[in-house]
Specification:
The complex is a heterotetramer, with two copies of chain A (314 residues), one copy of chain B (309 residues) and one copy of chain C (492 residues). Chain A is an all-alpha fold and 314 residues long. Chain A has helices at 3-27, 34-59, 67-83, 88-113, 117-135, 163-181, 183-193, 195-200, 205-231, 242-252, 264-283, 288-311; strands at residues 141-142, 233-234. Chain A contains twelve helices and two strands. A two-stranded antiparallel ribbon of chain A has the order 1-2. With 309 residues, chain B is of the alpha/beta class. Chain B is built from ten helices and twelve strands. In chain B, helix 1 (24-40) runs parallel beside helix 9 and helix 6 (180-192) packs across helix 7. Chain C contains 17 helices and 24 strands. In chain C, strands 16, 19, 20, 21, 22, 23 and 24 form a seven-stranded mixed beta sheet that branches. Chain C is globular. The chains are: A mainly alpha (314), B alpha/beta (309), C alpha/beta (492). Chains A and D meet through helix 5, helix 10 and helix 12 of A and helix 5, helix 10 and helix 12 of D. The structure holds adenosine-5'-triphosphate (2 copies) and magnesium ion (MG) (2 copies).
């Protein structure tokens, strides 16, 4: 990485260290016990998974408000498939495919109707949530417990972390590589940074954007798999409002809603900061509401600092 | 799904408004209500809020049916106060209301069809004490604020458990909330606070007062490897909870008879509309199912209600 | 105004400029693009704060901190780039910031009255007062903008290229109005590239060059040629190396292309220049050729490829374009130099969609050296560079891609003289007749006439949206080019 | 009005007529009975009230995601004040004042930190929700029943509509007038239409924007008064996600997230369209999920049509 982007990332990581340090001091060394660290990793897994995808949408200068609904749809799809005695792997793939379909709709509407992503995905957020409820007949669908439900479980054997976390880590590396080491990734940055320039430079804007929204939605589908794993129910009412957490993770991690900025590493740190605040507040016995206030302040402060840091370059 | 609209004046249309739609409990209520509707020839309209803490949308639903002018409303209020106004509006418009499942701080209804929730809570408390051998530390994970039914169960539980001298209630003021996902998170955070260095829990028993809190807590126990290591008594039932009972993760489920509740709710309001006298309070019964008695036909029927409409 | 200085980062826009206008006088302000005219007027209006210098109005010290204070002091301004709120009505735009109120409410009747009167003074009672400005034509918008300055009432009126999209009749109407205002004792500054307009309407003219006063005098008796000479300055002939060129195959063929009704053929080994005034339509022509704007009629052929194409396809056909709008369209300022430089041909830095950033950086480092780009290294963000160095990166992108046809729109905008010479040398090398390598072809738009004369083989002049016949560069002098672009003094 | 803006408004109104007509045909003439129309007016009141304020934020080129939280805070403030035996009028004013304070924070952060409104109000959305929960000690607060609870009730006497509706109508007229007939209003449009130009013309950007966010939040506070009236409890968890409904109402009504466009009349029609869909679906016995899908489609379609209609003029 460049010196500059190291500093950027160091800024966010520093934020994580400060927040973790404060809670460590308040709660004691057991805050950093392996068990607790693992708890944090597990609680952050769902938001992180969706946020990896959202990083792409935000880097491209867009946004996807429909991820919460896609997560709900994914849990419903898995549960329905499992009840039909489909193999768990196929059920999970079905959920990801459902996500991809939603993303395709988002991408096509955004590029063809030329409506801003905020509105398109606000609309599909409702539509997809409705479809999820319709599929589930407005119920929670209980499904047979399979190994899918162990994705976020403490592993029995020697594995250090639950397999779901390994999945997040693996895919994070993959997307980080995709953004950094492929043409597609650089085109996403170019579009987000300056769409008109990207067009002038021959970047296939429509195709790239559609792929971005499909990928974002596929990651939401994977987040849905993790969500399902936690409760083993297909719940069409789950993850309402989660999109804002996901967006906040990306932005705390250095992403910009104006596009062209954002890293997977930063996003994961952003998600981790929010989880540390949440678990720290909860284990320190702080109320839910204090936690919300602290999170809100950190979001505004992180972006304001970022704004100051970069305003020199503009 | 139910048809409506061009209902002629002669047909009776009954709006049945649950607290939510996603729990198995409500599905059973619906089955009972539909069955009663078929018997008496009344049209049943089933609509409710999706989130069990969405007071606002339940108020809107009631208002909508009052304005539309249904023959009667069968309502499970998800707030004992917030629904008082709409119910009294209904009364003023001569639309009778039967309250079921959970109470209302008002007198503007025809009848209250529900489980004796205090008794249900007490049954749960006694069952937990029995499973614990009458000693140990227990925790009560409360449901959500403002629900009359669960508050009564929680009260019943505490009253019963306090009668057992060897049992200490270490926490009884934590609410896990009305949705499963949030309940899972909060239950996990609360229980993690009682984690011992070896990874086990420093408490011996848990009680939860409804389906979603029981389900979420069950999943937390399973996910954290605590399943079977603490005694756990819950309320209501669903497939996975029945399986938990079979596997010995759950030591008891206090079950109501939701099918009967839905059935009697509709029957009662239709009787009232037809001018027959009805009781102001109708008890639909409550039982404890344990791993030992769950195979008995009577219990099996409660655990696996016939949802065919 | 005395000794006004203003710099933007490394660019010194104004370097000690003096300007005085008396009541009842129209002063013409002229100079080449980037001479500092707009900046000077921005300082006067309070939109920009000078780094040094002082201003006085009627002898009183005047140091506006914002455009509001400028307005209060009686300075009204018509900005060069149209600045209207497209969603507001004509009336509201005309009176924005100075709305009459009664009991705290807008006095709509008076607003309409004032706006109507301002437009009537311009001879336009036909403009609908309630139409949103966004729905009007560019020329009408310019009239609205002029009306805004009039309606507010002022002592000093600045018009920055008010006529760039007006027809002759409107221009005459405006001039008549300016004469009336002059008679009422207003002080007026009139900026224009149409020199004959300045000589027609102004009493006096002042020429700015590179942020300094370069001369001036009464318009009476000043010849068009003399003014152009002052504007263009000393000869810069030695800037332009010219190696032996040999005209090769035709690579770009344009036939009666709209807009511009342009027809020309571009060959390898030659540079075709397009001259013209601002707003004459040169940029639109280039954008149409490159596929950024739809071809309305006519034909574009690139080597063997016939017909319209997207920019994506144009790059594959071996055509690359440099935009005049560096900020909006030139570079991704948030990305690093290596990415910006290699964006159009990433496939050269890896296989199967994969990329090697280190190879990207290595290639970028090579161009940084060859083009003498001042930067910390290939990983520096493009937005941190000075404008001239940004422009070099945009040009390097074309060279890196190794396109056959380079479409350059104002390639040296914002570049200092030293860098210009380097770029001319590079451009010349591309079309030079060197053994073992096919020379490139270049199509170039520039507002800097010496540049066109210095580097091009043929030049075509665009005037009011129509492209003339390309003629060999020897057929033109700077003077003649300017004449051809402005309409040869016979009225624009 | 100009011919153009009449057509604009006619477009949205036509949408309302079509939607109402469809449901009228499905449900029968009783759909338009006075009682039902009044129900629609009552159910749309809360969203409409907040949307009147949001119209200003959106016209100015901004957004306010914190309105849902402000509504919750307002219900809590009223309940607490009523419990302290404060006069109902003062309690309602207290809620509006709490809203104004939130708006001031939003406005100051947006103009001083120069952080985009989306992020600032995303942060304050969490903060204000947290404050509401903290004030309420994470519970719902019961309050003595006063005439405030009758604001949205069917009036007993001769008044045609509940007083809360008259309040919405009155304030809508006021804001429509404010936007149309005052300097402030025209400056809001000018900022949203072309902020740089507005600065050059001497518009006081900072002050105007702060006033816009204060007013937006005050309307959210008033929406909170209506919400309290409906629930008769102070509920810190109410109106979660309502901001998206409110924004959708403004955008369906012709507002543009890019600023410079939007009318109070259009916004009210937008809110009415959503309510008609909701009540129509509900009274036709359609499921909740169908309603969500229909709403989502209408949002995307409305904006896409608008985009087509206006793209000619750009
Ligand atoms: N905001 C700015 N930031 C950086 N540089 C600027 C800015 N505004 C103007 N400049 C630079 O200042 C110099 C003078 O610009 P100015 O706009 O005053 O020229 P001008 O004489 O009005 O030219 P034209 O005839 O093109 O209008 C130019 O080199 C320009 O690039
Ligand atoms: N997309 C468009 N739609 C309508 N008018 C346009 C469009 N693009 C440009 N114009 C107008 O067409 C005229 C020609 O503009 P163009 O930018 O091509 O001129 P130019 O000679 O390149 O000037 P400059 O030196 O400023 O770049 C201008 O009056 C401009 O306002
Ligand atoms: Mg200028
Ligand atoms: Mg140009």
């Amino acid at each position: 990485m460049t010196a500059r982007s190291l500093v950027d990332r160091a800024g966010t990581a520093l934020g994580l260290i400060v927040v973790a340090g404060v809670f460590g001091a308040l709660i004691g060394p057991q805050f950093f016990s392996p068990g607790n660290l693992e708890l944090m990793a597990r609680q952050t897994a769902i938001v992180s998974m969706a946020a990896i995808g959202m990083t792409m949408a935000i880097v491209s200068g867009g946004i996807d408000l429909s991820v919460g609904s896609i997560i709900a749809l994914a849990t419903v799809v898995i549960a329905l498939l499992l009840r039909m005695e489909v193999h768990p792997v196929l059920a999970a793939l079905g959920a990801v495919a459902a996500g991809a379909a939603c993303g395709l709709v988002n991408g096509v509407l955004i590029t063809q109707l030329r409506v801003v992503p905020f509105i398109v995905t606000l609309g599909t957020m409702l539509i997809i949530r409705g479809v999820a409820k319709g599929l589930a007949e407005e119920r929670r669908i209980e499904a047979p417990v399979t190994w899918l439900n162990d994705l976020l479980r403490v592993p029995r054997g020697g594995a250090l972390l639950p397999s779901g976390i390994w999945l997040v880590i693996g895919l994070a590396l993959l997307v980080a590589g995709l953004l950094r080491y492929t043409r597609f990734g650089r085109h996403v940055f170019a579009i987000g940074s300056n769409e008109r320039m990207a067009r002038l430079c021959g970047v296939a804007i429509t195709r790239t954007k559609i792929v971005v929204y499909v990928l974002t939605a596929m990651f939401a589908g994977l987040a849905g798999v993790l969500q399902f794993s936690k409760l083993s129910v297909g719940d069409p009412t789950v993850a309402v409002g989660l999109e804002l957490d996901v967006i906040a993770a990306v932005i705390i991690g250095g992403g910009s809603l104006l596009g062209g900025r954002g890293t997977v590493a930063g996003t994961l740190i952003g998600a981790a900061i929010m989880t540390v605040i949440q678990i720290g507040c909860s284990q320190h016995g702080l109320a839910n509401w204090v936690q919300q206030i602290v999170t809100g302040i950190i979001i505004v402060a992180a972006v304001a600092l970022d704004r100051m840091r970069t305003s020199g370059g503009e | 799904s139910p048809r409506s609209g061009s209902s002629s004046a002669s047909t009776i249309s009954i709006a049945v408004i649950p607290k939510g739609t996603s729990h198995v409990f409500w599905q059973s209520i619906r089955a009972g209500a539909e069955r009663a509707g078929k018997e008496v020839g009344a049209q049943i309209i089933w609509r409710g809020p999706i989130r069990e803490d969405d007071r606002d949308s339940q108020v809107s639903e009631v208002e909508g049916f009052v304005s539309r002018g249904v023959s009667g409303i069968v309502l499970a209020p998800l707030d004992e106060t917030a629904l008082v106004g709409p119910v009294s509006d209904a009364k003023r418009r001569n639309i009778p209301v039967v309250i079921f499942d959970s109470g209302l701080k008002s007198d503007d209804y025809v009848s209250f069809v529900a489980t004796d929730n205090v008794k249900g809570g007490a049954l749960g408390g006694d069952r937990l004490a029995e499973a614990l051998g009458h000693k140990g530390k227990v925790i009560l994970l409360r449901y959500a604020e403002g629900h009359d039914s669960t508050a009564k169960r929680e009260q019943g539980f505490l009253d019963a458990i306090r009668k057992h001298a060897g049992i200490e209630v270490v926490s009884s003021n934590q609410y896990v909330g009305a949705d499963v996902e949030g309940a899972y998170k909060r239950a996990e955070a609360i229980l993690s606070g009682y984690k011992k260095p070896d990874g086990g829990l420093s408490i011996d028993g848990i009680f939860t007062p409804n389906e979603s809190s029981t389900f979420a807590t069950l999943r937390v126990l399973q996910d954290n490897g605590w399943a079977g290591k603490v005694k756990f008594v819950g309320f209501d039932s669903s497939e996975n909870m029945v399986k938990g009972l079979k596997d010995g993760v759950l030591d008891g489920l206090v079950v109501q008879d939701p099918v009967k509740m839905g059935y009697l709710g509709v029957k009662t309001i239709v009787a009232h509309i037809k001018g027959q006298p009805v009781e102001k309070r109708i008890d639909t019964g409550v039982h404890v199912v344990t791993p030992q008695n769950m195979k008995e036909p009577e219990m099996d029927k409660l655990l696996h209600p016939d949802l065919a409409k | 105004m005395r000794g006004i200085r203003k710099s933007f980062g490394a660019t010194v826009a104004l370097d000690g400029v003096d300007l005085a206008v008396s009541p009842g006088e129209i002063c013409g302000l002229i100079g080449q693009n980037g001479a500092g005219k707009s900046t000077l007027m921005g300082v006067l209006a309070g939109a920009l704060r000078p780094d040094a210098g002082e201003m006085r109005i009627d002898g009183a010290r005047y140091a506006p901190a914002s455009p509001i204070e400028g307005r209060r002091a009686g300075v009204a301004m018509i900005y060069q780039e149209l600045s209207l709120a497209p969603h507001l009505s004509v009336t509201e735009n005309v009176l924005l910031g100075a709305e009459p109120t009664r009991h705290g409410l807008l006095d709509r009747a008076r607003m309409r009255d004032q706006a109507g009167r301002a437009l009537a003074e311009l001879g336009h009672t036909d403009i609908p007062l309630d139409a949103p400005v966004g729905s009007l034509s560019v020329a009408t918008q310019q009239l609205v903008e002029i009306a805004r300055a009039l309606a507010v009432g002022c002592r000093v009126l600045v018009l920055d290229e008010p006529t760039s999209s007006l027809g002759r009749a409107d221009v005459e109407g405006l001039f008549a109005l300016l004469q009336r205002l002059k008679a009422q004792g207003h002080a007026i500054v009139y900026i224009s590239h149409f020199i004959e307009e300045v000589t027609e309407v102004a009493d006096r003219f002042i020429v700015l060059r590179d942020g300094r006063n370069a001369g001036g005098g009464p318009t009476a008796g000043a010849t068009h040629d003399a003014i152009v000479a002052l504007m263009v300055g000393a000869s810069v002939g030695n800037l332009f190396p010219r190696s032996a060129r040999a005209r090769g195959d035709a690579v770009l063929d344009v036939a009666s292309l709209e807009p511009g009704s342009a027809s020309f053929t571009l060959h390898r080994g030659e540079i075709l220049g397009i001259a013209g005034l601002i707003g004459s339509g040169r940029t639109r022509l280039l954008r149409t050729v490159f596929g950024l704007e739809p071809v309305r009629s006519g034909r574009v052929r690139v080597a063997a490829f016939e017909g319209p194409a997207t920019p994506h396809q144009r790059w594959r056909q071996g055509v690359g374009m440099l935009s005049e709008d560096r900020k909006e369209e030139g570079l991704a300022l948030a990305l690093d130099i290596a990415d910006n430089l290699t964006l159009t041909r990433l496939s050269a830095f890896g296989r199967g969609g994969l990329l090697s950033p280190s190879r990207q950086r290595a290639a970028a480092a090579g161009w940084i050296r060859r083009m003498d780009i001042k930067c910390a290294g290939p990983s520096q963000r493009a937005g941190e560079l000075s404008g001239g160095n940004q422009q070099k990166i945009a040009i390097a992108r074309l060279l890196q891609h190794d396109v056959d046809v380079l479409v350059l729109d104002e390639p040296t905008r914002g570049i200092d003289v030293g860098s210009k010479a380097q770029i001319y040398t590079l451009i010349d090398a591309l079309v030079a007749d060197a053994p073992g390598r096919a020379p490139k072809a270049i199509l170039m738009v520039s507002s800097y006439l010496p540049e066109l004369l210095g580097v091009c083989d043929r030049i075509a002049v665009m005037r009011r949206g129509r492209l003339g016949e390309p003629r060999p560069v020897a057929a033109y002098s700077e003077h003649e080019l300017m004449r051809a672009a402005t309409g040869g003094g016979a009225g624009a």
